[in-house]
Request: fold
Amino acid sequence: MLGRKYIIKIRHNPMTEAIGIYFGMQDSEGFKVAKSVKLEYEKIDEGALDVEPTLTIPSYLGSDFLKTLLNAIENQGIKSESTSKTEGLLEATKYHLEDMRKIVFEKQERK
Reply:
């Protein structure tokens, strides 16, 4: 939605060994911060379908919010498994190409 920007910060508190996640939003009304909630777990029957979501956001806001959250997580140096695998493949491809260049240039020098 135009005129709305999400700000998400992740901070580690070494005194409490807790990680704080702050959700902020800048829109035409000013800067707002989401109310603090305590993440608590409750036992449920496996496969229960009547459980409320931990966090609900309107679908028209979802994409921007989730992209901002992803960027905040990546800024902490945390990568998804698929991102790590892709980076590994790219690194291997880079070395393979370097090896192929050496082979090609060695053949050209022999001529």
About this structure: The chain has two domains: 1-35+50-78, 80-111.
